[in-house]
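[Discussion] Sanity-checking designs against the backbone

I'm trying to build intuition for which residues belong where. Below is a C-alpha cell string of 65 positions. I'd appreciate it if someone posts a full sequence so I can compare it with mine line by line.
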C-alpha cells in the first residue's frame, strides 16, 4: 500500500540488506492465514536476526501480546 508509515506494527526492510532486491515493508496489522496447499513457495530473500527481532516485536504489538 502507498507510503511507508512509522506504526509500531510496520517494519521497513531496506533492499540493500541481505538478499532483498528492493526495499520491502512488512505490515503486521495485515496478518493472513494461508492454506498449506496454496502456500507461497518462492523465496525472495532473507532477513537478518536483528530484522527478525523487529518483526517479532511488531507481531507481538499487532496481536496485543
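Best answer:
Here's mine. Compare freely.
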Amino acid at each position: 500500500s502507498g507510503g511507508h508509515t512509522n506504526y509500531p506494527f510496520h517494519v521497513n526492510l531496506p533492499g540493500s540488506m541481505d538478499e532483498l532486491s528492493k526495499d520491502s515493508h512488512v505490515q503486521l496489522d495485515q496478518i493472513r492465514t494461508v492454506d498449506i496447499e496454496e502456500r507461497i513457495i518462492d523465496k525472495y530473500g532473507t532477513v537478518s536476526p536483528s530484522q527478525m527481532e523487529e518483526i517479532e516485536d511488531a507481531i507481538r504489538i499487532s496481536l496485543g501480546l
